[in-house]
Amino acid sequence: MKLASFDIFDTTLLRLCGAPENIFYILSQRLYPSDKIRQNAFFLWRMEAERKAVIQFQHTNLSLREIYSVFDRQAFPDLDIESVIEKEIEVEMDNLIPVAYVKDLIARKREEGYTICFISDMYLPSQVLKKKLQDEGCALPEDIVFVSCEYKATKREGGLYDIVRAHFKHLTHWEHMGDNVSSDYKSALKKKITAYLISTGYTEMEKQAMKQAMSFPGGTDFSILAGIQRAARLTSGIRNADVDNAADMIASMYVPYVSYLFRKAREEGVRHLYFLSRDGYILQQIAEEYQKNYPEITLHYLFVSRYSLFLPNIYSLSKEELYECKGGSPLYVNRIKVSDLLQDLRVDRSDLDEDFKKHITFKRIKTKEQEDLFFEYLQSSGLKQRIVAKAAEERALVVDYFRQEGLFSEDPWAIVDVGWIGTTRLMINRILEREGGYRGKCFYLGTAPEVLSIRYGSFDSYYGTHLYTPSIMPLIEQYYCVSPYASTKGYARDDTGIKPVFKERRFTQNEELVRLTIQTVRKVARYTNALHLADCDFAMSVWGGLYLKVFFNMESTLQLSTFEKLGVFEDGSTHSSLVKKVNPLEVLSYLYKGKIKEIIFPRHSIYYTLKIKFFRPENSLREVCRSGFKKCSLRLRTFKKICRL
User: Fold this and answer.
1) Inter-residue long-range contacts of 494-500, CB under 8 Å, 24+ positions, other chains counted
2) Distance (Å, rounded) from C-alpha 552 to C-alpha 569?
3) What is the pLDDT of residue 569?
4) Which residues contact residue 198 at a Cβ distance below 8 angstroms, ignoring those fewer than 6 apart?
5) Is the pLDDT of residue 574 over 60?
6) pTM here?
7) Roughly what angle, to the nearest 10 degrees, separates helices 381-405 and 423-434?
8) What whole-number distance in Å separates Cα of residue 309 and Cα of residue 307?
9) Is 436 left (phi over 0), alpha (psi -120 to 50) or beta?
10) Percentage helix, strand, coil for the chain under 3-state DSSP, each rounded to 5
11) Mean pLDDT over all residues of the chain?
């Protein structure tokens, strides 16, 4: 007969909470939900209980009851041992989930005619483990589960393999699969078993994040969060970079934010949350996993963009309206393109008279004089009249769309966005107020220091201004905001109501990337919610920051295939990639110039390709030479002045 045996923990089944000792942490919380001191005391006792039981029984093949025989009754007089044992088993079973590809492997081995069994060095009873394996579709009633505590032998020492061999007589071929190099691989090989290692470990990013978290209070909370990320990856059934990067980077940033905004919304009596397209797409998907805990709050996806709201916000074509719709500053401060502004106002160059074309020759508005000249021609009676009329026409559709989506409701509502300036908040609230509605609040992941004030509607920023940096923003905007939708161009009326009209795009965001990202982050949210980790405020609040730090400090490996799918505009034209594999010529370009054409993070691209940390851009050969030349010139000028004296 042919036998295929499988290890159970971290091979066939995975603990959702990660490390084995995290089970004790969760158990302590269930035993003492409102007593932090007793929680910690029980957790520390349970961590030491197995060691004490080994000393008492003089062997390591302990059962759970033998471990609890050293229970400290004086420290915990309110606890019943039998009840605690049952509760620990309950916590274990609640946390165990199947590893998708191992479950598939078991099914494949059955089809190939193998007899299946399960082997584990563990203190839990075999009948408990078998029931869980059956419940998860991994085991059949006839499958046998061999557990070290019942046979007083282990895989590590080899004795448990001998017992299995003695049970299955007439073995012609035996394969064993497990995750432990020592007990599942080396020990099996010594027993003449064909052994295969199953990889269910943490990614390099997860390892580095947990390592950094050791310096923070509440280290166990971080360990549980990393366990959830690993579980989301390994239970997906798909092993690729898109899943790994979504679990580690996007989920760690967005899941805490969504958890926070639900709690704040309930606290402030908000009844409706509107997630703004397109940046809010992933956030809304995560929110759907949390909503069952907040049934009084409804979720909506609002199709808007700065382009679709710009012209409807023009009532009189005043400078103030243009300033506010462009972020609150004069046009020349941000060096606004004339073509972009005309496009926002729905003005085609063919509609402009020759006088306008003759005097507005500049491509960007760089000075106050240019701004005044542009505005003067904009105010010409014919052009202004057309713009204001078109604005009123589009505004009527926007108002009907807002009314259709419930924004004119008297129930408190809020919009949810990534960030940064608050222009969309201003535009939505201005139209609502001018048309008889009420202002709404806005929840942001982060804001710019120059964010528009609360006079345009109150707002809450989860990360404050910490994410608004030249290094972090491109990463969030290109990767963290992937969406299947194109930008909203405007609105149209049909028999069913107002529908969004999207910009035509020749490039579609990689559908597989979007699908796997959504699937993965939703799973992380579901698992986090199941373990009630919203209470771990500190760990949740720095979770995403840890992974950003690992990425930017180049402290781990990174699979670049995900990022190679980014970096393309809707019209099909390309723009700078975040990171990508580099060739020798590009490395030489960085050595000389400190940059690589069309790569936002060239130093990181080199590291994640070659695993070599190069100097910062300012230390490149060209920059060093420029700096040296400036210093020499300064010294020469100083020397000449001295000579003249």
Assistant:
1) 497/400, 497/404, 498/397, 498/400, 498/401, 498/404, 500/277, 500/303, 500/308, 500/401
2) 24
3) 55
4) 7, 11, 99, 102, 177, 178, 179, 184
5) no
6) 0.90
7) 90
8) 5
9) left
10) 55, 10, 35
11) 91
Q: Above 90 in pLDDT, residue 30?
A: yes
How many other CB atoms are there within 10 angstroms of residue 124's CB atom?
20
Give pLDDT tens digits for 496-541: 999 999 987 655 567 889 999 999 999 999 999 888 875 677 888 8
CA distances from 549 to 128, 545, 603 (A): 42, 6, 15
Task: Compute the CA torsion angle 47, 52, 55, 56 (nearest 10 deg).
Answer: -140
Within 360-439, where are the H helices?
368-378, 381-405, 423-434
What is the C-alpha end-to-end distance of the chain, expressed in Å?
Answer: 103
Residue 30, judged by CB atoms within 10 A of its CB (0-12, 13-18, 19+), counts as: middle
Residue 48's alpha-carbon distances to 89, 121, 271, 580, 641, in angstroms, are 18, 18, 48, 47, 77
Paired with 168 in beta bridges are none
CA distances from 276 to 383, 461, 515, 643 (A): 32, 15, 19, 67
Distances (CA, A) of 187 to 2, 121, 157, 197, 206: 19, 13, 7, 12, 29
Question: From start to end of 449-579, where are the E strands?
Answer: 459-461, 488-494, 497-502
Crossing angle for the helix pair 204-213 and 537-552, to the nearest 10 degrees: 120
Q: Tell me the CB-side half-sphere exposure of residue 346, using CA atoms within 13 A.
A: 22
- Rounded to whole angstroms, how far apart are CA atoms 483 and 418? 13
